[in-house]
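To: structure subgroup
Subject: Chain for Friday's discussion

All,

I'm putting the inputs and outputs inline so they're searchable in the archive.
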Amino acid sequence: MPKKSARLKKIFFGRASKHLKLTESDLINAESRLGATLFGPVPEGHRREFFRFKHNVWIYHENWVENGKRNESTITYEVRENGVYKLPLGGQYIKLKGTELENFKKATKEYLKLVKQKLY
């Protein structure tokens, strides 16, 4: 078994066993947990995820309870030849510009660096 696979299984399952199979979903979940740390501490009662879903698609998701009400925010980012577009849940595509575009680029670069260092 390659070192990478053993390391991932230990992170994910607490041990590295030849018999445990990692699924694509397992890997996305592990990457997502690391990606969530890029935006500072996750407040208590919040769940945050940030991960690359496909080659050109990124997902930012957060949910929390406030005053007894469950809140949720999901934004899909698509990297296209002519720019980066965000799609808020239930909204329309918006092309990123300026500071928002620079922040997205920085977050994705840091994510790739972190995932490479910690998982692969």
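Points worth raising on Friday:
The longest strand covers residues 69-80.
The first helix runs from residue 3 to 13.

D.
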